[in-house]
Amino acid sequence: MNAEFDISQRSFDFAVRIVKLCQFLEKQSGVPRTLANQLLRSGTSIGANIEEAQAGQSKADFIAKMSISRKEARETLYWIKLLEATELVTSDKIEGLKTEADEVVRILTSIVKTAQQRK
């Protein structure tokens, strides 16, 4: 299985987990709902941009879309850390998502760097 397919599936599976977390946060009022909206946007955008990158019109377009995906992954990691630090979600419930977000950032960084070197 190549890395691009793997990151596509991983980002989709990750988005499913993000949606479920946001559904939990939406049941609360105030700040958790606001953060859920931010997290939902960034967490689902990762995979959407990866899909767009794979249909890119050029190598530059591929790199640009993958770079956006990486930025969205970093933002998602930020929201996850914020949820944990503010104790809106317990560490034991969010640790797996935090680890996966970090790994997705690393994979996307590697894909972008490799694509830039091959350009």
Give the topology, please:
Blueprint: H1 3-26, H2 31-54, H3 59-85, H4 91-118
What does this structure look like?
There is one protein chain. This protein has helices at 3-26, 31-54, 59-85, 91-118. The chain has 119 residues and is mainly α.
List keywords for this structure.
single chain, 119 residues, mainly alpha, 0% strand, elongated
β-strand percent reads under 5%
Largest sheet: none
* Large-scale geometry: elongated
The count of DSSP E runs of length 2 or more, i.e. the number of strands, is: 0
Number of helices: 4
Q: What portion of residues is helical? A: over 70%
Outline:
The protein contains four helices and no strands.
